[in-house]
Records
---
Amino acid sequence: MKIIPIPCLEDNYSYLIVDEVSREGAVVDPVEPQKVVDVAEENWVDLKSVLTTHHHWDHAGGNEEMKKLVPKIKIHGGIYDNVAACTHPVRDGDKLLIGVDTFVTCLLTPCHTRGHISYYATGKQGEEPAVFTGDTMFVAGCGKFMEGTAVQMHESLCNILGALPKSTRVYCGHEYTVKNLQFASEIEPENSRIIEKLKWAKHQRSAGRPTVPSTIKEEWETNPFLRVDNPEIQKKVGTESPVEALQELRQRKDNWKA
């Protein structure tokens, strides 16, 4: 299983998932369809499907054009999310196959949108798994609670995505890492892992390189929205429970200026 990040728009990512045996592929959130088709052709990939994380235009807005460019393509999206041009609605736990060796499990991770889906991909034995988290989990952050609650985000972020194997590579929908880590460093100024990763992320971006993927292990070490069980974080934001801490952190981040 090979994964090719495709920078799109100002700070979005699409991702090409390639089954290396069959050369069949799927694309996550192809918001710039022609760019995706060009990358697929350059890498000798036969595009078979679209995996849409949620209905927002900067993730699903390319689906109609994708269908025109690749007429037989299957377009997957959450059954509760009204995804543009969706031909194959998916539910929590549905299994998809890319080629012969790449398996994808659909995970319902609501809050940013009502029917947001994250896609958990596994390849051949020995390959590290990957998860495509859209706008639910970012590197060191989480999405805004646009159609849900802190209770839902805690379940999606901590109990579903956070429960994946620690080695799982995290491919999120946006390049927000530097600002997210700057915010995280204000919440946990003594966390050396945050300081180290912030320095690394700044270097990556100054060199024009992406900060994805992260891993679930790294997120447990550096993502304050995932670390809300930590009594020190709860104390920092003046709350007494993980869900309350998550709500307060999101409100602070919504009003925060780097």
Note: The mean pLDDT is 97.
---
Amino acid sequence: MQQALVLVRPLLRVAQPGTRPRIQHLRSRFVPKRSFLTSPSLAAVYRRPVGKIQVVTIDDKIQQSFKLDEKIETRFVREKKDNKLCEPIDLYELLRQIDRTDNHVLQLSKPGESEAIVQVVQRKDLIKRLNNKETAERQVKQAQKEKKPKQIELNWAISGNDLQLKMKQLEEFLRKGKKVELLLAPKRHQRKATPEEADALLKALREKLQEVGAAETAPMDGAILRQATMTVKIP
């Protein structure tokens, strides 16, 4: 019986030594064609925005800061005019009486009353009140910030150069009238200081305080070679 010899043609050509197999014709069957722009400068135009930018106008601030017009909760109000209270009037009647292009009905009394005390004010007056309010809030925050002590961190095993920088920073804060908190603590993964080094550091700090005329406002809180806090200030 004669045997039939069947030759199966491989899908991929055998690569010659030193060459790469040619499979580009197979890859193109499975990778879809890109129909969009690939230029970086043009593709950037089609990116979706990450978030919306919210613009707050002066009128938005006015509406958020004051109880005005239809936002007044009581149906009847008493208008304050010339430091006197008028007879109760329907809120919507009062709104019809004023020029609303530049005027508002402002609630003066706190919420919860049966008849709110109101005043007719111009928009420019509301802007002035808002500016005064924001200025007062900034002044309070600034005062709180100034009262908060400045903090300087020191390692018990601090080097001589770093100590000089910390001393200079300490002197600058103290001469500006600031209260300073010196936070002394060992640093992780660094050399631990010896008791002699810790004593020398405290001595150097106290000599600097004496030099600039400052003093500790309270005894040192904490323990040597562990965490400790010194609060100092020029009297």
Note: Confidence is low (pLDDT under 50) at residues 4-8, 23-31, 33-46.
